[in-house]
Amino acid sequence: MFNHATRTGRFVRRSRAFRGVAVTVSVLLVLSTVELGAQRKSGGGSVKQSRSASSNAGANRSNNYNRSTNTTPNRNTNTNVNRNNNNTNVNVNNVNVNRNTNVNRNTNVNNAGYYGRPGGVVAGEEGAVAVGRRGAVAVGEEGFVGVGRYGGVVSGEVYDSYEGWRVAAGVTAGVVTGIAIGTMLARPPAASVTVVSGGANYMYADGAYYEQVMYGGEVTYRVVQAPPGVIITTLPGGCSSTVVGGVAVSQCGTTYYQRVSNGYKVVVF
Amino acid sequence: MSARLQHTLQFFVVLVVIAGAACNRQQALSPEAASAKGDALLREMSKNMAAVNTFAYTVDERRQIPGGSQGEKKMTRQVTVRRPNALAFTGKGDRGDTAGWYDGKQLTLVSHRDKVWARGPMPPTLDEALDFLSNEYDVQMPTADLLYSSPYDAFMTKDTTGGWVDTQKIGDRSCEHLAYRQPVVDWELWLSTDRSLPCQLKVTYKQIPGTPSTLVTYHGIENPQVTDDTFKPKVPDGYHRIKIIRHATVIDPKLDEPAPGSADAPAPGGKQIK
Asked: Which residue in B114, B118, B155 is closest to A47 by CB distance?
């Protein structure tokens, strides 16, 4: 009687935001392995919602890794994500050589018509496209698309805290060193400070920037790309000095900072 | 007091206690009878809930997370529903004050604690919207099952077992206690004896570490006067809009097509005729 298959396709938008995401994807490195799990799974849903969540959750929980051998950052306009057992890769707008072997091997299939609650994402020229079991389907206008700085796609789950993420992601074990873009926290890191860019407020802590988003009916903090123009007083650890376009900058992960009188300003080349 | 009199009184007290217990003991039903009685009560409740197009209720929600860092969360939620495509709610609790509106096209959510709001697209009917809320926006409503056009179908599946347990007092109401098991959740529902409407609902999430549960206590279901304005979003001045995060759910329009080479597959170059 109740069809779980909602009409997501109606909400397909080719927005500028997604274009930005596409650019983001093209710039980002997929360097290591991040496990997506151990998040805000405290229940709270109705009986039907719980059944649905359970049947949909598998795709995101099983073997959801990105294993990349890509060592040529900034050269791809496309990233392969989520190759399901019944799926084909969707490569949209390949330019240059894509050496990604970035694969999500999800093997759980939802009979209700969904492919996993947080579907994977492939970046197209003008939008992000989630890959279905047998084809590509787009996400909504303000749909969630996250691509990790250090670990590929992060799709829509929430860690209770920064400390919780550190444990789950293996930071303490040395597997991962930075929080991936798209990761969400129920609350910002305790040490975070508010920074401003373009009239928007962000939280900053330990080299990562967070924006407030609404997720699960609650305000949540999502890791985003460093907003251009933001000034921080101290560089995070692990930065190196370099020169880009004749400008001396500090490179911290994929973020460049230029020394200014009151600190370090995020710059984009 | 003599020892004899004391013994007599003690015997009398014991007798009264036993008699009371016997009176309170409810007739035990066979599993089949309990299942049938529970099913009948559920169907009656479902019929009653589906019969009202506009209704409102207030519930106290307690989410218990054994051993979790968050402990117990409490919230009082007021919900107003107008079938087939409108819902408004407010919430007050440990996670701050919230409000939300669904008007058949959009969902608008407000967090008063953070002074922010968000908006996203929604399907056109309440049944679809309830699924969408959970699957796309991960908004979990423990009372959602009772809002579908058929609550019975929302609750029950082929692998559901259980039935009527007993009659209990929830506050000052006499309520029929039903208990069911499913692979993912166990749930209990208390229905008012006189009207077969929800008194209380408990859902235990068995597949989540710590087996958390949600207990929802209803404070009556009313038939309020509503207008379109009831379901219009009301965002206070000065609130900042933030993005709403939505899962990348996928619908494959070809999901129902027969596999190539199967007996049902159309002949190459031709259309399947049914």
From this structure: B155
